[in-house]
């Protein structure tokens, strides 16, 4: 298999995506800047209303009306600004250059066709000259992920288990030798053991093929097992970003701190864990001025009401918070 | 992505307030698309025609022997018929029969079909099998030949009689559809929860299942009206049933077979008038059906 | 309060012309849920935990076995006479949205069961409104805000609380929470879990918590008991904290090993148990059900099926750890804290 150059860098700059609503155009993603270092797995964590799925779609320039990309750029090495691509160029980019594994890949396979036929459809629509080689690649990928390639290609979607379907989704995203891969909620609806296996597969395949990978999820645990860098999103903004061990060990943004504290853990004093007060924002309830998180924040100050915090990067860590002056470790007294 | 605009509500929302909010919501839904308003206007127009139309004219419409099949003029907007009676007057006075029959058919079809479908779908088991066999029987009955045979012994003078027969012939389709809706709905969490709480069956069917199926039933009823209109017009056109000069179907029959409307232009307005009335009525109903889903779903209604 | 003995259930699937396929969902399961207690069923999807939960809530039938509620065996009663017993056990579904009627306001949703309750306990209609507000307060939401609204106007966490409030209208003695927090945002899950714990303490309601996420099982309160279910059989059972810290059955250990480690905050446990994957559907029913995937299985495991018991031979006490394995061994698999 030939591959041109090393893993590409992905630079998202000042991305703003708005949705048209009866109340006007409201931003789902607001001024997001993120760089995916080549060859790394970046995890984006957020709950409902955080804008993470919209962000993932933007990488493919696949935001549909009533949404539209209002500002910013998504540059991928070797492709230029994806947001400026259109028509045939864009269609070719999707699949060949940027692979996308859909949320619940279980449901995004055509139930009426076998996997093999869908693979051939994919190849034909991307003008792959040698379809036999494509099928051989697909079988090799499936074998790499622990499946019987020939049998899976002959199966329909309902004949495969959830874990198998997820692997098929990953195979379809990689088979055209894309170098940037986006996985949207790859482990939802999977059992814990299957989840662990899929995460391991993602990690291994990523390393073998020297990809730049983005994993979108609401599950901090899933992303902790697999990612090198972690970006935390809330209300359409990136509130914290950095190497994963650091972000989890010494979170600086109150949301990150609260989120970690709100995760049920296997050990430690259960009375010390606490849910975050309030509710995640919806498009309509997002504050327009000031910090979007202030309603639920325990470090809320006067300035948070009126001034949106700037994204400050130093020491390889990015934080957007008025109260985050210096690193303060989360008190994990509950651990022995 | 949706934005929910939460209306002003207080804790003491009574039934009356909910009802008021409901009608306000209906108005909002209708205003969203001008086509729906047009539909409402059309249907209301026909309703008015049905109610007061015959009151505007004398019981026996005036004939004019000097103006048989007269062309359209200011005095006779659609010309006159074979007796010299104004065609427009005929259409307006004929509306009542057509609409009443349509309404009667729709009510019987939907009421019977829904009741049977709901019961069969909810109870399942033996009741379901029995009722579905009955439904199959009903669907298998050849409607047209049966009506033709019936018409030799029964003169359907009253629109209710006609509506009754058509209704009894046509509930099968609705029953089947409602049953499958019921089967899928009854697995939903809130139905199971209602059963778990011990709420009586009549509450579950009447207060939980029925409102969830309301848009479907409303749509069925409206479409049943159009179906009934076509059915009876068709029958009268075939010359099967008693002659009533102002009946739209009879008018079509006379226009084509006696007036030669398809070959000569003289009786053309006589043909077109009832035809246009039927088409307009159907159009009005179809435009309203579009709004049914939004009206009965609170989420879509409020948006 | 409720005990079950040798509960068996088989699902008959529509097969082809050659015959129907039978899928055993539960294979002779025993359980006991004490008054005011907290029991969790853990397992992967398809293991039978949901089926068992629904059987306990009276929503599903079982093929054989005996269920005894408050000393009365259900088999001695007609279907109709059983209903009052099962009404004391209320199920909370996984999806709060589909558990509420979208065409009715919360007020209407709560009104129906409250009216029924009022008739049963001889109270006035006015009591219904008061009780509705009481229950909503109890579950931690503002009645004024919630009552006039439709389900789609509330967040997932609030909906689930409304569902819990509705379950409480009948003054149940037990709540069966079937994956009750799986569809709720992570930052809000502990709130619901805390609510369940709270209800146990304040109302003495027992909680049966069914989940695939073991960590959440700890949060339903003290002195909980954990049942680990695999393919219709209970493979390990005992006090929640003991099982999590000191699992003995390889399946339990593999479930706990699979829990992601929050690097930077935790380090992985000393040992990890990774089962081989069961990818084909024709899993054998011979011997230990887990033997094909167990990294430690022996010839004996493939021919003989282990029975749930204690190494000492006695079973049945809640404080005792039971397992169904021929060579159980304690392994330290859960992540350990790195420390502040």
UniProtKB/TrEMBL annotation, chain B:
Entry-linked InterPro entries: BP-dependent_transpt_permease, MetI-like, MetI-like_sf, OppC_N
Protein name per the record: Peptide ABC transporter permease
GO biological process, alphabetically ordered: transmembrane transport
Superkingdom in the source lineage: Bacteria
Gene3D superfamilies recorded: MetI-like
CDD domains in the cross-refs: TM_PBP2 (cd06261)
A Pfam family recorded for this sequence: OppC_N
Keywords: Cell membrane, Membrane, Transmembrane, Transmembrane helix, Transport
PANTHER family (alphabetical): D,D-DIPEPTIDE TRANSPORT SYSTEM PERMEASE PROTEIN DDPC-RELATED, OLIGOPEPTIDE TRANSPORT SYSTEM PERMEASE PROTEIN APPC
Compartment annotation: Cell membrane
ABC transmembrane type-1 domain residues: 95-289
UniProt record similarity statement: Belongs to the binding-protein-dependent transport system permease family.
UniProt membrane topology term: Multi-pass membrane protein
Annotated TM spans: 37-57, 97-122, 217-241, 267-289
Signal peptide interval: none
UniProt GO cellular component terms: plasma membrane
């Amino acid at each position: 298999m030939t591959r041109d150059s090393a893993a590409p860098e992905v630079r998202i700059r000042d991305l703003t995506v708005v949705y048209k609503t009866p109340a006007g155009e409201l931003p789902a993603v607001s001024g997001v800047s993120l760089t995916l270092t080549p060859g790394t797995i970046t995890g984006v964590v957020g709950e409902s209303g955080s804008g993470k799925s919209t962000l993932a779609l933007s990488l493919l320039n696949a935001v549909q009306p009533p949404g539209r990309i209002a500002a910013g750029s998504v540059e991928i090495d070797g492709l230029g600004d994806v947001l400026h691509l259109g028509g045939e160029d864009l269609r070719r980019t999707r699949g060949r250059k940027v692979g996308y594994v859909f949320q619940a890949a279980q449901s995004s396979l055509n139930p009426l066709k076998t996997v093999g036929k869908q693979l051939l459809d994919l190849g034909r629509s991307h003008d792959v000259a040698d379809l036999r080689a494509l099928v051989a690649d697909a079988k090799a990928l499936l074998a790499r992920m622990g499946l019987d390639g020939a049998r899976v290609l002959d199966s329909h979607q309902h004949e495969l288990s959830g874990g198998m379907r997820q692997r098929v989704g990953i195979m379809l995203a990689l088979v055209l030798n894309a170098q940037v891969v986006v996985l949207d909620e790859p482990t939802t609806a999977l059992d814990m053991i299957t989840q662990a296996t899929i995460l391991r597969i993602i990690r291994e395949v990523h390393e073998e093929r020297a990809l730049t990978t983005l994993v979108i999820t609401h599950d901090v645990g899933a992303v902790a097992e697999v990612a090198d860098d972690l970006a935390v999103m809330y209300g359409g903004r990136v509130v914290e970003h950095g190497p994963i061990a650091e972000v989890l060990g010494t979170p600086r943004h109150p949301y990150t701190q609260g989120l970690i504290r709100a995760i049920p853990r296997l050990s430690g004093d259960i009375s010390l864990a606490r849910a975050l007060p309030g509710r995640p924002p919806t498009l309509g309830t997002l504050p327009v001025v000031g910090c979007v998180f202030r309603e639920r924040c325990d470090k809320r100050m006067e300035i948070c009401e009126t001034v949106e915090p700037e994204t400050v990067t130093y020491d390889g860590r990015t934080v957007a918070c008025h109260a985050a002056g210096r690193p303060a470790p989360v008190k994990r007294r509950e651990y022995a | 992505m949706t934005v929910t605009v939460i209306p002003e509500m207080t804790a003491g929302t009574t039934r009356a307030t909910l009802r008021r909010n409901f009608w306000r919501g209906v108005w909002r839904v209708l205003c969203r698309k001008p086509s729906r308003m047009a539909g409402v206007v059309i249907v209301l127009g026909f309703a008015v025609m049905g109610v007061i139309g015959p009151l505007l004219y004398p019981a026996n419409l005036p004939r004019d022997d000097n103006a048989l099949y007269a062309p359209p003029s200011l005095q006779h907007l659609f010309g006159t018929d074979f007796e010299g009676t104004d065609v427009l007057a005929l259409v307006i006075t004929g509306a009542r029969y057509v609409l009443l029959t349509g309404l009667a058919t729709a009510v019987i079809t939907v009421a019977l079909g829904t009741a049977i479908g709901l019961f069969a779908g909810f109870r399942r088991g033996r009741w379901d099998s029995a009722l579905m066999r009955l439904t199959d029987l009903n669907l298998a009955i050849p409607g047209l030949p049966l009506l033709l045979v019936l018409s030799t012994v029964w003169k359907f003078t009253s629109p209710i009689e006609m509506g009754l027969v058509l209704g009894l012939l046509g509930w099968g389709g609705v029953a089947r559809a409602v049953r499958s809706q019921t089967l899928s709905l009854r697995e939903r969490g809130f139905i199971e929860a209602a059963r778990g709480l011990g709420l009586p069956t009549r509450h579950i069917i009447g207060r939980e299942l029925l409102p969830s199926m309301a848009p479907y039933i409303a749509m069925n009823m409206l479409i049943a009206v159009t179906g009934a209109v076509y059915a009876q017009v068709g029958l009268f056109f075939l010359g099967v049933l008693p002659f009533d000069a102002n009946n739209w179907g009879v008018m079509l029959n006379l226009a084509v077979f006696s007036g030669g409307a398809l070959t000569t232009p003289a009786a053309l307005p006589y043909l077109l008038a009832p035809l246009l009335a039927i088409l307009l009525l159907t159009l009005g109903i179809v435009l309203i059906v579009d709004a049914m889903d939004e009206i009965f779903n609170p989420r879509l209604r409020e948006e | 309060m409720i005990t079950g003995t040798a509960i068996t259930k088989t699902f008959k699937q529509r097969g082809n012309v050659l015959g129907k396929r039978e899928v055993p969902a539960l294979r002779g399961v025993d359980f006991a849920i004490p008054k005011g207690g907290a029991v969790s069923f853990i397992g992967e999807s398809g293991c039978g935990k949901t089926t068992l939960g629904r059987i306990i809530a009276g929503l599903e039938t079982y093929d054989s076995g005996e269920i005894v509620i408050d000393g009365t065996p259900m088999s001695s009663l007609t279907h109709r006479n059983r209903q009052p017993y099962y009404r004391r056990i209320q199920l909370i579904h996984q999806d709060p949205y589909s558990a509420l009627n979208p065409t009715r306001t919360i007020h209407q949703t709560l009104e129906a069961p409250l009216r029924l309750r009022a008739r049963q306990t001889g109270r006035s209609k006015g009591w219904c409104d008061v009780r509705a507000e009481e229950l909503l307060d109890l579950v931690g939401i503002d009645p004024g805000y919630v009552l006039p609204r439709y389900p789609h106007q509330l967040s997932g966490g609030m909906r689930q609380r409304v569902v819990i409030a509705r379950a409480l209208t009948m003054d149940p003695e037990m709540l069966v929470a079937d994956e009750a927090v799986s569809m709720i945002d992570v930052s809000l899950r502990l709130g619901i879990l805390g609510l369940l714990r709270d209800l146990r303490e304040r109302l003495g309601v027992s909680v049966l918590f069914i989940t695939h996420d073991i960590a959440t099982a700890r949060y339903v309160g003290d002195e909980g008991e954990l049942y680990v279910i695999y393919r219709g059989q209970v493979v390990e059972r005992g006090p929640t904290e003991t099982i999590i810290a000191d699992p003995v059955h390889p399946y339990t250990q593999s479930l706990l090993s699979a829990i992601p480690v929050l690097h930077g905050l935790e380090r992985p446990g000393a040992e990890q148990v990774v089962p081989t994957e069961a990818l084909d559907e024709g899993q054998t029913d011979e011997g230990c059900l887990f033997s094909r995937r167990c990294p430690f299985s022996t010839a004996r495991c493939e021919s003989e099926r282990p029975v749930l018991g204690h190494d000492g031979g006695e079973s049945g006490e809640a404080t005792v750890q039971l397992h169904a394995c021929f060579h159980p061994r304690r392994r330290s698999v859960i992540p350990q804290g790195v420390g502040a």
